[in-house]
């Protein structure tokens, strides 16, 4: 089968698919660099229920840059398809790694989690809440670098105004979101990151349900345990890790630490960020390409509505 070319990229290998479309490994035909390309049907992009979320994701993701965030490199559009080119993470996602290992040793979990929290600290300092932090949304490179991805539900905070939209993934959702209360998106992210940390170590979530229970019963019991904060912290881990999990998974969002405070926690003693400031400067070329794409998508959306 002939490999498809998109602009200066050649799609080389199918990787995965989801509700948004498919992901392919691709190669830059000039430099030879291996990248990832998300292939999205244009008609789906223009659907009312998807359109604003998609533009929001593109706009925010193109304007952030951090070593532990999967970076947008390019965007392209033809008559029927949107193509988004990303860094290629050849180690799978964090969920794959946790499941394959049966749970990570503290030292390995600490390495990945420090990077994840560094990325969360960065977006929080910009006033951005991710709102869908989970194992599947952390990609891993062969060199053991973690990259936060999927900014489809992210939101720019409006001053001190709380967020209202119930979103995310149930098993990672903070109690205040389950309760459909106005919430602080950054504090909700900390809860979700706490669930990620727990699952990295234990290879399961803190919520216990019967294997043969019907889905409605499982959902009801999970919600009940989240709201009540029924979390049994493992006793075979270090005291420092127990303390960090307990702090992050506090049902009172005001008592959860910030990402910056987490990086200063004793569990991370001896670790430093050491990020070159140049690696935090967004790529103006990518911002320009994304801005042009957004304008073109708006035109096509308007034309479709006529």
Description:
- It is a single chain.
- 39% of the residues lie in helices and 17% in strands.
- It has a six-stranded antiparallel beta sheet with strand order 1-2-3-4-6-5.
- Strand 5 and strand 6 form a beta hairpin.
- The longest helix is centred in the C-terminal third of the chain and has 22 residues.
- It is globular and about 55 Å long.
- The mean pLDDT is 93.
- This is Protein kinase.
- Keywords: ATP-binding, Kinase, Nucleotide-binding, Serine/threonine-protein kinase, Transferase.
Please specify the SSE layout and strand pairing:
Blueprint: E1 5-6, E2 9-18, E3 21-28, E4 34-41, H1 42-45, H2 48-62, E5 72-77, E6 81-87, H3 94-101, H4 106-125, E7 128-129, E8 138-140, E9 146-148, E10 155-156, H5 175-178, H6 185-202, H7 215-228, H8 239-248, H9 259-263, H10 284-305
Antiparallel strand pairs: 1-2, 2-3, 3-4, 4-6, 5-6, 7-10, 8-9
InterPro entries: Kinase-like_dom_sf, Prot_kinase_dom, Ser/Thr_kinase_AS
Domain Protein kinase: 9-268
GO molecular function, one term: protein serine/threonine kinase activity
Task: Return the CATH class of the largest domain.
Answer: Mainly Alpha
The share of residues in extended strands comes to 15-25%
Indicate the structural class. Answer: alpha+beta
Determine the CATH topology of the largest domain: Transferase(Phosphotransferase), domain 1
- Give me the Rg, rounded: 20 Å
Number of helices: 10
Domain Protein kinase: 9-268
Protein name: Protein kinase
Keywords: ATP-binding, Kinase, Nucleotide-binding, Serine/threonine-protein kinase, Transferase
InterPro entries: Kinase-like_dom_sf, Prot_kinase_dom, Ser/Thr_kinase_AS
């Amino acid at each position: 089968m002939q490999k498809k070319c998109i602009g200066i990229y050649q799609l080389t290998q199918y990787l995965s698919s989801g509700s948004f479309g498919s992901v392919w490994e691709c190669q830059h035909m000039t430099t030879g660099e291996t990248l990832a390309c998300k292939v999205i049907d244009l008609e789906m992009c223009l659907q009312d229920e998807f359109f604003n979320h998609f533009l929001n994701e593109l706009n925010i993701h193109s304007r952030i840059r951090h070593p532990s965030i999967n970076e947008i490199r390019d965007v392209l559009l033809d008559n029927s398809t949107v193509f988004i080119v990303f860094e290629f993470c050849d180690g799978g996602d964090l969920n794959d790694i946790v499941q394959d290992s049966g749970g990570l040793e503290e030292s390995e979990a600490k390495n990945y989690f420090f990077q994840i929290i560094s990325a969360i600290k960065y977006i929080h300092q910009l006033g951005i809440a991710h709102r869908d932090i989970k194992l599947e949304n952390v990609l891993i490179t062969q060199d053991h670098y973690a990259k936060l991805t999927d900014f489809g539900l992210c939101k720019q905070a409006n001053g001190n105004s709380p967020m209202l939209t119930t979103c995310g993934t149930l098993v990672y959702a903070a109690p205040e979101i389950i309760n459909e209360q106005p919430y602080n998106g950054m504090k909700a992210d900390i809860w979700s990151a706490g669930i990620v940390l727990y699952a990295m170590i234990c290879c399961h979530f803190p919520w216990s349900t019967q294997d043969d229970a019907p889905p409605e019963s499982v959902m009801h019991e999970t919600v009940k345990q989240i709201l009540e904060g029924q979390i049994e912290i493992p006793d075979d881990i270090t005291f420092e890790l127990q303390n960090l999990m307990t702090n992050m998974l506090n049902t009172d969002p005001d008592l959860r630490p910030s990402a910056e405070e987490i990086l200063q926690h004793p569990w991370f003693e001896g670790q430093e960020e050491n990020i070159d400031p140049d690696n935090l400067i967004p790529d103006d070329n990518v911002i320009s390409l994304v801005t042009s794409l957004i304008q073109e998508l708006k035109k096509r959306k308007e034309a479709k509505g006529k």
